[in-house]
Design goal:
alpha/beta; binds zinc ion; eight-stranded mixed beta sheet; Alkaline Phosphatase, subunit A; 15 strands
Length: about 425
């Protein structure tokens, strides 16, 4: 069987933009390497964010890897908890917990100005010292992406929450947690978290690291709770295929850990536009020596899209093509490797949030019948030879496994 690499450009897909003459960012930027994958292979569209699951990157990346969400979606909190080595007990509920900036009763910034880890780790350690107890613990992650765990039978993961990156600019009064069912445990969890958040806000308002800060980390924001994850191992799911995951962000490593895939951390990988692109590309080529499959995830484009910064998004797409995809294609030139490119979900810059629109993908491999498309884009992919895929069909198509031969139906996008 061929070896394979999936290039995952988080949040890359977008809409046609008037300021780009009706082109999408992906169409506007010169991307010869992604275009090569489309030209040498075939394109299609893939549903990564099906209803009723949240429009979150963990859902989208689990979809790309072909996991059955209805059977095994654990919530983002538990996946990121796994990534940072937190072993959840049977009565533990893990929440992803952002450090955010609130101003004048509005959620101003979901990332507290992309707070540096040196600061966020100290703040989370201080929160643990002040508020950590038998019922709650605070665990620092990377930058604004942290974890809290509630301990005890009285708590539930049945809580309605607002995704902070989808709620910027909205009044805090409209973004409160609420019980998702009638149970006592659901109500108890919401009331416990509401008081905890209020106490933390008072504490953070006076925290020395927030002094003279343009985007102070003045609130914690718990969301996407869940219990200990139970995912089948990737290699058991796909005929023994040994997979490795390269990323900078905990949620992707959490998926890797829960799927028993190798996690490769590259020095200088930041999850932003200053990431070590070259290091990640080299790591992917190296990982393919002793793995069958590499999932190479890059977060930067997603972050630029959430910021609504079109110029930065264009640069991040260009960097992704020239500094990730290009060097990997070059290093593996002439080898029997299947290459696939896709985003996990769109983040249109004018919306600054994820949408459920199926994503464009392209696959180039020995087993893929070339179609007539000569470039990779949202506009062209729906007319590609691989049609509209969902569930585990994308991954099976990459691996050329039975079950990938789906009738090519027209994408709902096209
Ligand atoms: Zn994403």
């Amino acid at each position: 069987m061929s070896k394979s690499i999936v290039f995952l450009a988080d949040g890359m897909a977008d809409d046609p933009l008037p300021e780009l003459g009706g082109l999408s960012p992906l169409e506007h930027v010169s991307t010869p390497n992604m275009d090569k994958i489309a030209r040498m292979g075939a394109s299609g569209t893939f549903l990564t964010l099906p209803e009723p699951f949240p429009t979150s990157s963990d859902v989208a990346n689990l979809s790309v890897l072909g996991y059955n969400l209805a059977e095994c979606y654990p919530g983002r909190g538990p996946l990121e908890a796994a990534a940072i080595g937190i072993e959840l007990g049977e009565n533990d509920i893990a929440f992803r917990c952002n450090l955010v900036t609130a101003k004048d009763g509005i959620l101003e910034d979901y990332s507290a100005g992309h707070i540096k880890s040196e600061k966020s780790v100290r703040i989370f350690e201080d929160l643990q010292k002040k508020f950590g107890c038998g019922k709650v613990s605070f665990h620092p992650g990377v930058s604004y992406r942290n974890i809290i765990v509630l301990h005890g039978r009285e708590f539930s993961d049945s809580v309605n929450y607002h995704k902070p990156d989808s709620s910027q600019g909205e009044p805090l009064s409209s973004l409160r947690l609420s019980p998702a069912d009638q149970s006592d445990s659901s109500a108890c969890t919401v009331s416990f978290l509401e008081s905890l958040c209020a106490e933390c806000a008072d504490f953070l308002a006076k925290h020395p690291l927030n002094k003279d800060c343009e985007n102070p980390a003045n609130m914690i924001w718990p969301w996407s709770p869940g219990k200990k994850p139970r995912l089948p191992a990737f290699k058991d799911k796909y005929c023994g295929i040994r997979g490795a995951v390269i990323s900078a962000v905990d949620v992707i490593f959490g998926i890797a850990k829960c799927a028993s895939m190798t996690q490769i951390r590259v020095p200088g990988a930041t999850g932003f536009i200053d990431t070590n692109y070259e290091g990640k590309a080299e790591a992917a080529v190296r990982a393919l020596e002793d793995h069958d499959f590499v999932f190479l995830h890059v977060e930067a484009i997603d972050e630029c899209s959430h910021m609504g910064d079109l110029a930065l998004k264009l640069k991040a797409i260009s960097d992704f093509d020239s500094r990730i995809v290009g060097p990997v294609l070059k290093a593996l030139d002439g080898k029997d490797v299947t290459f696939a490119i896709l985003p996990d979900h769109p983040v249109p810059v004018h919306l600054k949030k994820h949408t459920r629109t199926p994503v464009p993908f392209a696959i180039w491999g020995r087993h893929i019948k070339r179609d007539s498309l000569d470039s990779y884009s949202e506009r062209l992919a729906p007319a590609g030879g691989l049609g509209f895929l969902k569930g585990d069909q994308f991954m099976k198509k990459v691996f050329n496994l039975p079950g990938s031969e789906v009738p090519a139906i027209k994408s709902p996008q096209g």
